[in-house]
# Entry
Amino acid sequence: MSAVILDGKALGLRIEAELAERVSALKESGVEPHLAVVLAGDDPASHVYVRNKQRACERCGIKSTRIDLSNDVTQKELMQVVANLNSDDSVHGILVQSPTPEGTDELAITEAIDPSKDVDGFHPANLGKLVMGQTDGLLPCTPAGVIRMIQDADIDLSGKKAVVMGRSRIVGMPLALLLAQKGIDATVTIAHSRTQDIAEICRSADLVVAAIGRPATVRTDWIKPGATVIDVGINRVIDESRASGSRLAGDVEPSVKDIAGHMTPVPGGVGPMTISMLMSNTVRAAEMRLA
Ligand code: NAP
# Structure
């Protein structure tokens, strides 16, 4: 058996085409959705991520503004940039690219963003709504993208067992909450670095989500035949057969596709969906302002 591959790139483009129509409608009402991206420092991966987000804005017709700051920006300066964007009525979404430079407090910056412009969905007010079962606001992009892929593939998780490997504030924990919400109705286990018998726990699951940042950790013999496997991990691994000397790898061993029912590729799975959900949140933030 070979898994159905869940193509996040194709689904992401479909979502962006729908968003472009909502953007046109907003523009007709005199509102131009506008995402401000703050990029501090010279981390090469962050530059690539920001460029990809700006390209997605172009595809959707969303205005994007990039604010470049040096690696030695202070916490006070970063907070001032956020305060300025909070009070700028032309801006609907604010994203401060992670990681922020050493010596700055990323959590404090997240908390300083106006929750109605928090298109990353990481502000405590937005995460709190998620805990309360309110899922119509600004949801964290990667977890929302995973749910959208599962729904698009018509995978029914009602009453089924789901294992989320990873308990981070931005992926694992909010995703576990979304999977357990009414309407999705999975029975969720959250696994982490202290979990015992993780292979056995995964083997009993109908859905395994790996969000740990450890290449090829999830093995073929951890997966129940026909289960859905979502690989959130993005790891750069050495590959001397490539001109660059490296390639991207997920948290799941590629041969899992021989046993899973559905599986996401890396790259081209959850990554593009995360960007599409950022676009979706920006449009939603603009629509909420209009409402
Ligand atoms: P993180 O904050 O480092 O959290 C990793 C989590 O994995 C922690 O909860 C950790 O447990 C757990 N963990 C580590 N090793 C484990 C193991 N062997 N077994 C079980 N659990 C283990 O990472 P993150 O920000 O959530 O990101 C996770 C991965 O997803 C990374 O590769 C990241 O690059 C990727 N990512 C991808 C996207 C995308 O768009 N595709 C978006 C965000 C992140 P403890 O809590 O016990 O330490």
